[in-house]
Amino acid sequence: MNTRILSSLRFPLAVLIAFSLVRCGENHAATTPPADEPIPVKIQPVITASEGKTLQYSGLIASNSEARLSFKIGGIISRIYVKEGDHVVAGQLLATLDLTEINAQVQQASQNLQKAQRDETRANNLYRDTVASLEQVQNAHTQTTVSTEALRIARFNQQYAQIRATAGGTILQKLMNEGEYASAGTAVLVFNGAAQNDWVVRFGVSDKDWAVLHKGDKASITIDAYPDERFTGVITKLAEGADASGGTYAVEVTVAAAGRKLAPGLFCTLQLQPPGKRSLAFIPASALAEGDGNNGFVYTLNADKHTVRRIPVHIAYLQGDRIAISTGLDTVGEVIADGVGYLTEKSVVKLINK
């Protein structure tokens, strides 16, 4: 049985009571009787069904290859060669720093290496003439090695004083402009490598839903941009711990684009179908006398058909004008659906024919 389920099983007590009272008010059987007369009521059968629990969540389309590109070193941004929405190819130059300082550092490291090499050559010659000690030769060699590595570091930093595209994709955002100072690691561009079609939806689920979900579970996805189509997906990541800020557990669903053009930020709705089924009892929403979170109460007729019994139930979820009950109605075949707003456990009732 396919159902659309609220992402949270909790709903306000006032909403359910108000809904039940409105339903009661629409039926003449719920008219308030005089205090000395039986309360007219109507009953509805309890419908039992075995179904898999369907979870519904929403989120935004994103890409696994989305990256926040930055410079390795700090400096003044000299040029940004792209703008938002531009398509780029792998290796394309996107931005560069003013290289005056870094080029000077490379030149300085190069001169230091040349001096160290001369010193090492001189020390070797003196050592052969027994003028310099072995320690002096070793120190000169160490200095050459240190200078070589310093030049390699400077050239490496020079190389990463520019930003290049790591793959083909799209520039989503330009976060800084030319002339601004960019600290090392500060994002300058937001890049999406959409060429790989690795589209995902990330969202958080409650602890109860997390407990029944597994990697590999299927998902049915509706994207607002394509309202008449259904996309398929699969859970590829399931967090092992709750998010500290929201208390939810992160889930990632990989989406099959099915040849459609997708883009980051598209809104979508997901229906997740965990494995396994459970037996649920369905009753009209008007039959719920009280509700508090997942707990509530309903009334049923006693064998004499004139008195009532108050039954505690556990609510699984609300589905339209029906309520799914997980426990409490195992041995109950009918519940009072009209007139419950006026009932107590001491009430005397009169059954109205359907």
Draw up the topology in text.
Elements: H1 13-25, E1 39-45, E2 47-51, E3 55-63, E4 66-70, E5 75-80, E6 87-88, E7 93-97, H2 100-128, H3 134-159, E8 162-164, E9 169-174, E10 181-182, E11 187-192, E12 199-205, H4 207-212, E13 218-223, E14 231-238, E15 249-255, E16 267-272, E17 278-284, E18 290-292, E19 295-301, E20 308-319, E21 322-327, E22 334-338, E23 349-351
Parallel strand pairs: 1-23
Antiparallel strand pairs: 1-22, 2-17, 3-12, 3-16, 4-11, 5-7, 5-10, 6-9, 7-8, 9-11, 12-15, 13-14, 13-16, 14-15, 17-21, 18-19, 19-20, 20-21
Characterization of the model:
The protein has 4 domains: 13-52 and 277-351, conserved putative lor/sdh protein from methanococcus maripaludis s2 fold (Beta Barrel), CATH 2.40.420.20; 55-64 and 198-272, Efflux pump adaptor protein, beta barrel domain (Elongation Factor Tu (Ef-tu), domain 3, Beta Barrel), CATH 2.40.30.170; 66-96 and 163-196, RNA polymerase II/Efflux pump adaptor protein, barrel-sandwich hybrid domain (OB fold (Dihydrolipoamide Acetyltransferase, E2P), Beta Barrel); 100-160, Helix Hairpins, CATH 1.10.287. It contains 4 helices and 23 strands. It has helices at residues 13-25, 100-128, 134-159, 207-212, and strands at residues 39-45, 47-51, 55-63, 66-70, 75-80, 87-88, 93-97, 162-164, 169-174, 181-182, 187-192, 199-205, 218-223, 231-238, 249-255, 267-272, 278-284, 290-292, 295-301, 308-319, 322-327, 334-338, 349-351. Mean pLDDT is 84; it is low at 1-30.
